[in-house]
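Input chain follows. Return structure tokens only.
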Amino acid sequence: MMKFNKDIWKSVVGYDGIYSVSNAGNIRRDTSGICLCIKGRILKKSLKRNGYHQVCLYKDSIKKYHQVSKLVIEAFLYQRPKGMTINHKDGVKTNNHFSNLEYMDSYENLMHAYRNKRFINGVLNDKKIINIRKCRLINKMSLKEIALKYKISPSSVSLISRFRVWKNVK
């Protein structure tokens, strides 16, 4: 006999009674409303440019986008501590099952990706690391400017430019 795992649902933090989130990473509408807002409807996720799922939630006629992994972990664990980031244990940004999510600091998160050969999708090499450091230290470019140029996060740029990662590349 086959067992089916049923989703466990909890209220989305800040949207009590309006939306719920499941341990599998699904978001549903808990109330009916105007404009095709159907009670019980599972919301469609969209993919952000950084590869993470997001959903659009409405409250008091205000529309706001939220990263799905954040909604899941806050409902099933607790609100993110200051300075911590959400890590996907298997490295798959779209796997938002609660069992795949954990909090860790940015450095640990980057090291986790590096150890698992998922470091920034393999887009960096020694030459690019040297150029990132030059952009930051010599050209005084902002973290955001460099991050956009190399399609990585500003926190990754910071760690690279401070020799916290890729220490062997000078």
